[in-house]
Amino acid sequence: MAVSIVVPPLGESIVEGTIVKWLKKEGEKVGKDEPVVEIMTDKINVELPSPEEGILVKILQEEGAVVPIGTQIGVLNGEGAAEIISKASVPASEVKEERPTVPIVESKTTVGPSVVSEAPKKRSSPAVRRLAREYNINIDEIQGTGGGGRVSKEDILKFIESRKGAPTPTPVGAPTPLVGERVTTPLGEEEVIPFTTVRKAIADHMIRSQQTSAHYTTIDEADMTGIVQFVKRNQKNIEEKFGVHLTYTPFIVKALILALKDFPLLNSSLNGDKLHLKKYYNIGIAVHREEGLIVPVLKNADQKNLLEITRELKDLGERARTNKLTLDEVQGGTFTITNAGMYGTIAATPIINQPQVGILGVNRIMERPVVRNGNIVISWMTSLSGTWDHRVVDGGVASQFLHRLVEYLEDPILWILNE
Questions:
Q1: Active site residue: 276, 315, 328, 394, which one?
Q2: In this structure, which of 163, 327, 360, 368 has its CB flanked by the most CB atoms within 10 Å?
Q3: Which CATH number applies to 215-416?
Q4: Do residues 286 and 206 touch, judged by C-beta distance below 8 A?
């Protein structure tokens, strides 16, 4: 019996995805649950497994196509394949048949270059495969040093360096150089650089957020001296005893949750004309990576202590930068923190991560002179930028919330003792 390959539900608020790469060609054999196509959303890349074993007889949507959830994108062989292919050419609104769903698997395993062979394929992440394509490298030629022979980014870079006359690779962690087509205009020479699929997805998501919510931003400042001194005083002992490197972010997460509990309106989402007040606290933490910003979610953060939050944030951040997050780890957030302070920013106006009603921008923590009781003293200060959905949150409430957050950050000892 013929089987359709269908784009399954890809997570909260995701209505479509972009086909990045078909991992099999028409006419190739596909095993059950074997990754067959890579699809990108504005949250993460996922590899869809084949629902059954068979031959991929028809690819209905080519690479680069934007496909809504529920779209048939391929057909496995069997009785009725011709009928499925014929129906797929009919506008979706006229197709009445029930569409099977396909389970989502974590985007960790992959298939190498499409060849008709029974040999095992090299394991690698989508980011590694993209780097390999940029340098025209066959991953099967590389000996992976990761678990199970997985090919890592470092393996690719070492291979590039070993090739005589190869271009100098981009250092790990450095921005990927932008290369485009040079054109001459009446005003001078320009370089035209097309958006990557990731960048386009981020752009679409940001525009959709601005069009959905009535954005406005409030800014307050907090004296972080108590937290800075606590971290400096205890960081070495905590690292030796618990094996974690303490940073300021877990304190901000804990203080944020306390403030959200005082102002539950801010931990909500608007669905039509109904407001959903969340009784759980899933805090998204924006992470910068070469491909673009991603927001892994710290689930049930209110139930974790500072050390647990520190460990989990480190793990999520590392896996975000190496494209090893699962779809579940980038959805379900109730409020988001974005930290531009690590790049020296002193103020910002972040864009709301839909469908949430607020986002907190954390800026640079730095020493500067301030006036205390008529005296000039040196304190560790930061500014906090909160952007809100004015459909839900009025200015007075937002200002009170941000000030309450400042109070928790400036006097952390009382709530630290409750850990």
A1: 394
A2: 360
A3: 3.30.559.10
A4: no
Closest listed residue to residue 102, CA positions, set 52, 67, 56, 66: 52
394 included as an active-site residue: yes
Distance between CA atoms of residues 364 and 340, nearest Å: 7
> Which two three-digit tokens encode residue 336?
């988001």
Every domain of the chain with CATH number 3.30.559.10 lies at 215-416
Q: How far does the chain reach from its first CA to its final CA, in angstroms?
A: 58
CATH 2.40.50.100 region(s) of the chain? 1-107
Handedness of CA 87, 93, 94, 99 (dihedral sign): positive
Residue 4, beta-bridge partner list: 75
Q: Which residue has the tokens 């068979």?
A: 54
Tokens coding 38: 């890579």
Residues 56-110 pLDDT 10s: 999 999 988 888 888 999 998 854 445 545 554 444 334 333 333 333 333 333 3
Instruction: Concatenate the DSSP letters of all residues of 57-75 into one string.
Output: EEE-S-TT-EEETT-EEEE
Using one digit for the tens of pLDDT, what is the confidence trace for 220-233?
999 999 999 999 99
CB 193 within 8 A of CB 180: yes
**What is the spatial distance between Cα 316 and Cα 295, in angstroms, rounded to a whole number?**
9
The closest of 257, 241, 238, 240 to 249, measured between CA atoms, is 257
User: Any idea which architecture 122-194 has in CATH?
Assistant: Irregular (4.10)
- Does pTM surpass 0.70? no
CB atoms inside a 10 Å sphere around CB 233: 10
> For 261, how many CA atoms within 13 A lie in the half-sphere containing its CB?
12
* 273 catalytic residue (yes or no): no
Catalytic member of 245, 276, 328, 390: 390
Q: What is the DSSP string of 138-207?
A: -GGGS---SGGGPBPHHHHHHHHHHSTTPPPPPPTTSPPPP--EEEEETTEEEEE-PPPHHHHHHHHHHH
Q: Is the pLDDT of residue 208 over 90?
A: no
* Contacts of 316 by beta carbon, 8 Å cutoff, 6+ apart: 285, 287, 296, 298, 325, 329
pLDDT at 12: 60
The DSSP string of 85-130 is HHHHTS-GGG--S-------B-TT----S--S--SPPPPB-HHHHH
